């Protein structure tokens, strides 16, 4: 009975009409392209010239914005370290760079929409060949693109674009140039000396709390700076000295440490201290994996083995992180035995 009921239900199901079947089987007709509408710049020479003036005006505005970014770098220095100086420096330099790049983008879009050739083109697909005819067609396509865009003909637009692109690089060069030493000193010598010295207490960054060896628990990692750093103001080079002296303090089981004979006295009861400045390009190495004892640089993924002299086990870094020799004073606080015995930071400083 159930089978007969199912059969009757199938027989009573509505069937598609013949007209619907014909509509589905008919192919969709190609509507073709809509009628071409000329732009105002195609019909009015004055509008064309006005559009051209807007384009190269934007490009020259980009040049002025790039120059302003460089001027703002000098007009709003941050040597005093105050928040107002930092805010003004970042604001006005950022505005100059932003307007420089924005003007190039808007100018290029307006150029393409108002002045370049506006004809619709349909290209049929065909097999790609390397014949002489194909190469000749490629050359011709470049010539056509030059003609349609007016790149070779519109000298004011072309030259202003070149000027804007060239000027947009200047702010970056200015900012990065100031990172290099400007007093004639050798970078290796500058990075070979930090504020660490014999008896210098290890304190937490940034609150300056001294650290006792008993406070460093197994598997923990402390961000450390020298205690005397608190005596420096931003005007006296606080940031520069801190950038060289920052240290990561880690505690392992003493038997987990692989130490050479000349470095066995550099640690204290499994506590080791290594520079946080990556030996690749100087990024802060601060990601510690407790189970593997690996330090990870977030910039380019260099990895260092804390249990084995912070040697490089992965990534582009060329040498281990410099180790800070440490011990404890009479009160149980961790102190440095000396400064680093090698330059901190990127290895490229040592190349001649």
Structural commentary:
This protein is α+β, with helices and mostly antiparallel strands. It has two domains: 40-120 and 134-177; 188-350, 3-layer Sandwich (Rieske Iron-sulfur Protein), CATH 2.102.10. 40% of the residues lie in helices and 11% in strands. It has nine helices and ten strands. The chain has helices spanning 2-12, 18-25, 40-43, 45-75, 83-114, 132-149, 155-177, 187-191, 238-245, and strands at residues 202-204, 221-226, 247-251, 271-275, 287-289, 294-296, 303-305, 311-314, 326-328, 334-336. The strands form three sheets. A four-stranded antiparallel sheet has the order 1-2-3-4. A four-stranded antiparallel sheet has the order 5-6-7-8, with no helix packed on it. The protein has a two-stranded antiparallel sheet with strand order 9-10. Helix 4 runs antiparallel to helix 5, helix 4 (45-75) runs parallel beside helix 7 and helix 5 runs antiparallel to helix 7 (155-177). The longest helix has 32 residues, at 83-114. It is elongated and about 90 Å long. The chain starts with a helix and ends in a 16-residue tail after the last strand. This is Cytochrome bc1 complex Rieske iron-sulfur subunit. Keywords: 2Fe-2S, Cell membrane, Disulfide bond, Electron transport, Iron, Iron-sulfur, Membrane, Metal-binding, Oxidoreductase, Respiratory chain, Transmembrane, Transmembrane helix, Transport. One of its GO terms (molecular function) is 2 iron, 2 sulfur cluster binding. It is found in: Cell membrane. It is a multi-pass membrane protein.
């Amino acid at each position: 009975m159930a089978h007969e009921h199912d059969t009757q239900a199938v027989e009573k199901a509505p069937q598609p009409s013949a007209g619907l079947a014909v509509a589905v089987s008919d192919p969709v007709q190609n509507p073709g392209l809509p009628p071409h509408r000329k732009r105002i710049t195609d019909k009015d020479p004055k509008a064309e010239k006005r559009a051209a003036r807007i384009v190269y005006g934007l490009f020259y505005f980009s040049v002025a914005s790039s120059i302003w970014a460089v001027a703002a770098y000098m007009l709003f220095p941050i040597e005093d370290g105050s928040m107002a100086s930092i805010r003004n420096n970042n604001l006005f330099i950022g505005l100059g760079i932003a307007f420089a790049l924005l003007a190039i983008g808007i100018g290029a879009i307006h150029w393409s929409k108002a002045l370049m050739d506006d004809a619709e083109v349909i290209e049929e697909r065909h097999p790609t060949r390397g014949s002489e005819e194909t190469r000749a067609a490629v050359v011709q396509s470049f010539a056509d693109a030059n003609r349609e865009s007016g790149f070779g003909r519109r000298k004011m637009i072309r030259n202003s674009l070149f000027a804007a692109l060239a000027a947009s690089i200047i702010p970056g060069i200015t900012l990065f140039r100031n990172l290099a030493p400007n007093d004639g000193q050798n970078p290796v010598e500058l990075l070979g000396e930090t504020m660490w010295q014999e008896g210098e207490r290890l304190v937490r960054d940034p609150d300056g709390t001294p650290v006792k060896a008993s406070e460093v628990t197994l598997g923990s990692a402390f961000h450390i700076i020298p205690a005397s750093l608190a005596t420096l103001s931003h005007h006296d080079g606080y940031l520069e000295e801190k950038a060289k002296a920052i240290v990561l303090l880690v505690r392992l089981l003493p038997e987990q440490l692989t130490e050479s004979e000349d470095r066995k006295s550099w640690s204290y009861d499994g506590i080791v201290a290594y520079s946080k400045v990556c030996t690749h390009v100087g990024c802060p190495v601060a990601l510690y994996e407790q189970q593997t004892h690996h330090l990870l640089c977030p910039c380019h993924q260099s990895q260092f083995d804390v249990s084995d002299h912070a040697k490089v086990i992965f990534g582009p870094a060329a040498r281990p992180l410099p180790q800070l020799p440490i011990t404890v004073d009479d009160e149980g606080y961790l102190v440095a035995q000396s400064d680093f015995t090698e330059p901190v930071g990127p290895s490229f400083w040592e190349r001649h």
